């Protein structure tokens, strides 16, 4: 199988998982009292699952290389925490489809900028009319999901 096709399928499935994550964490939020508590439980379970997977795969981190990374590389988990808290909080107010559509729109807008500048080591891909139009279509989709 084409490695790029396999990567695309994996990413689509991961996107579906985030769509499932939003309503399950919203339901959890009702039981544990806040979106922050729901995110904490979600991350604790995810951390345990990753720990088990690391043991199974015998993944050994390169501690020396990790120590040399700039400070901003270490805050990636904070972005995930913001995502999970916002999703848990947003779903009961906006619904799953609108919450996820807005999140995708935000991801695409920031993604365009990161690509344009080659930030964080991403391959530099300047903003083009086609790429901007693609994001505009997603933003139009947000309006359609919201209004119809």
Automatic annotation (TrEMBL):
Keywords from the named record: Membrane, Transmembrane, Transmembrane helix
Span of the signal peptide: none
Bilayer-crossing regions: 37-57, 69-89, 95-114, 126-145
InterPro entries from the UniProt entry: YdcZ
Domain of life: Bacteria
Protein name as annotated: DMT family transporter
């Amino acid at each position: 199988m084409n490695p790029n096709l396999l990567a695309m399928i994996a990413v689509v499935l991961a996107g579906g998982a985030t769509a499932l994550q939003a309503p399950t964490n919203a339901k959890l939020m009702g039981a544990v009292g806040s979106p922050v508590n729901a995110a904490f439980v979600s991350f604790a379970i995810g951390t345990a699952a990753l720990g088990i997977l690391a043991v199974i795969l015998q993944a050994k981190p390169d501690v020396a290389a990790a120590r040399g990374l700039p400070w901003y590389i270490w805050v990636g988990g904070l972005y995930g925490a913001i995502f999970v808290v916002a999703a848990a909080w947003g779903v009961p107010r906006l619904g799953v489809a609108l919450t996820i559509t807005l999140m995708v729109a935000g991801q695409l807008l920031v993604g365009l900028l990161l690509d344009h500048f080659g930030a964080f080591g991403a391959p530099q891909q300047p903003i083009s009319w086609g790429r901007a139009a693609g994001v505009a279509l997603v933003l139009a989709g947000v309006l359609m999901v919201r209004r119809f």
